[in-house]
Batch of 3 targets.
Target 1
Amino acid sequence: MEAKIAQSIKLSTRIDTVKIVEKPNGFLPVSQRCKEQQRFQTSISTQLPKRTSAHHKPVVFKVSCAYKRFPASVLQSGGFPATLDEALILKDKSQEIGPYLNGRCIYLVGMMGSGKTTVGRILSDILGYSFFDCDVLVEQAVGGISVAEIFNLYGESFFRENESEVLRKLSSMHHLVVSTGGGAVIRPINWKYMRSGISVWLDVPLEALARRIAAVGTDSRPLLHDESGDAYLKTFKRLSVLLKERSGAYANANARVSLEYIAAKLGYMDVNNLTPAVIAIEALEQIGSYLKEDGIAV
């Protein structure tokens, strides 16, 4: 398998740290946690599919992904720190399922604004995995321009083709948490790639999604930006159409994380009051349930 990957991917890893001895679950001894950090730098080179246009040159897929894995006591992602209780629960859950994951990748699917990147970073931190955002990888591959610009210049079809190629490459790797684009689920070939790992659907109510997106603006959301009018109403209307088109595809995921269920369980009226760490805990719980149902975990 490693030889096969090496034929299409040039992988170089650098670890900038003093000598670290990790436990099997990926955690450092308590005395070392605040002194030692680990940085991975990955360079991947391959060629993305050509666009059938004389105005666009073949794109070379060159990705540099660097991240620091912080200890559980200061676990944070996207500026949202986990409380001590949340960090301890995350640690326990990761220790429960870690041995049964067997290095398989975790693919997060869900609507735009569902928190895939934020939750994904927490999961990668706690599991000792690397984190990849498909949108970012495509952006870097196409010269560093944004997803919105890619849609505007080359069209959605071009973006989807490159998104599929990114997933194809990542599917041959291990120990990754991957945040997919909201529309990745509509292409059957992407499910073929994601079946190499475990797919997790972050299911967020439309009202909450619309409020989140309207609050920060729709400029970076090419499927929402063209409509005029009240930000919340136009976002809710468009998201409703997209969810109707995609809900059946999202349901193909191996595990579902329902924010409505989590909120009801914890006594919250608004799902937006849930912390990313709490959502990550539920994700680990649902992954564990899937592994048990699949006969992998006992």
Note: Residues 71-293 form a domain with the Rossmann fold fold (CATH 3.40.50.300).
Target 2
Amino acid sequence: MNAVTKTQSAPVAQQGVMQRLMSFLGLVQDESKPPRMPWMAAFIGVALAALLFGVYRWYQHAYSFTVGLDYFEQEFQTYWMRLFYIQMTIITLIGAIGVPLLWFTRPANPEMSPRRELLVYYAILAFAAVGSIILVAILGLYVEADAAWHQVTVRDTDFTPTHIGLFYFAIPLAAVGAILGFVLLHTRVPYFTNRVSMPMALIVAAPVLIMPNLGLNEWGHTFFYAEELFAAPIHWGFVLLGWGLFAIGGLIIQILQRVRELTVLNVKGAQA
């Protein structure tokens, strides 16, 4: 009897810890009260992302000029190509496992209370507000640094320290994260099921389509664009596809429309 009790109490204890953690982050709230913006979850999540990209940027700064100038040196294979294979394997596994897992575990008829649905939208808005700060930092420390690096050092292959950090880490990670968010939103939130949010689709398409444009860019630099000019036509695709992130404005409008529907007062019903 005691063994059975202990076996049953372990999952309950784990569930209690997870419940307290989600409550601390603001992702689980008392549904008898109006939902609040989960700022704690947004700040902690973005802080962890900033730590990850900050450590990666330190690694680039420490090892780019010492062992990152020549692809054909053994040190480059050790410090950079090994990193490339590790991060691409991890990112690929996250997408290959995460997308089918979300899809095949989706509820047949997703239901959500209005307060819970509001909390989901509040979480999206909170992460968008806080995440916009780190996005600007990433654009400066990774995108602009990539062009500046290639203006100073002549690329010998498609694999350079800044490319490995930008096109084989930051952008694929953003693409996988956007795809997972797209699937999660369209399979769990009733307002988005049985339809496709075009703004969300554009947000997902932006980092995904940048990857084939990378192939065009490297082909162009290999054969007829030796210079690394910011305004070179071979770079126009990056700008155009990067503008896809502006579709977040459309997603916010969709969310605010739904928030209005969930929070409007039924005056006639109340008077009746």
Note: Residues 104 and 187 are 10 Å apart (CA to CA).
Target 3
Amino acid sequence: MPPSHPYKDIPIANDAPFELKPSPEKGWGCFAKTNIAEGSEIYIEEPLLVVPRTSYKAAEAVVQAAANKLGDRDLRIFSWLRKNGDATKKYTYYRDALSDSYFEIKQSKAPSHLYVVHSRFNHSCVPNMQVTHNNVQLKSYAFRDIMAGEEITFSYREMLYKTSAQRREELQEEKIFVRDCRACVPGNPFQEQSDSRRRLLRGLKFLRTGEDPEERENSPDRYPIIFDAQLKQDIANKRVAIYLEFICMLLSACLSEKEGFLGYYKTIGTVEERLSEFVDTLGTANHKEIARHVLSQETWWKKFCEACKLYGRVDANDDSQIPWPHWGDILPVILRTWTP
């Protein structure tokens, strides 16, 4: 590590469970100093710089004006930012320093916020950290156990429902390069299964909610997931069997666990809570009993297997007759995503 590298001087709280140091082929990154348990808070940060949204042409003057309002200490920190962490590559333009280190906080009137520390965490399509915000304050959490020495990463974009080809295309457009991600490197078993899992997760979300997370408004879908136009319309109109949502949620949890994303949903509190709420939507007493038994199982796979006992049943509160796809069609897809 070059002793003169400015990143050595970036102020990080003494009790932070990570350190900033060079990351192979990624410039610099953040690495765990100690074991970090799932659900643990990793860091809290306020923005160094807040810049109103503006045109690219006007951005240089706007960012420079905002930087000039910083105190001496913060201006020094801003000047330490480097392209890809290379000590010799200072930014020529203020706007480029901002564009490489900002987060958009959609609820804020000034959407470009520069966070010096969180911007040093690298991207991964199989991350171990989730970043949330409270107004303009960023908070990050471990959504699985992180071992000492392991690099801490988060996903720069919503990637759960994209295949490796889709992710590569999107990341390259934004000049984000991923070289060692096991979900992206072609030819390895995890990557092949990962693509199948993420396609299936996308389809399950559509079956469950009627919304395709990858369908773009007023744009042709380059990666369609449902080809039957009538089924797609029925699902969009939410005319699907009530048990379908329960089974879809549990199978999604199984797939997310295999993909390494389940902890993310547990961190934001959406899995168990939604499953418990589902039990209350059932109108048939026997179905409620089965659903409660399902939730008492130890593993997500056991929960899913027990939930399949609801397959084909019509609930008292069910006004739909659209069935789950035939098991002969769906099981080969599930098995392609699975290794014991």
Note: The chain has two domains: 6-156, 189-336.
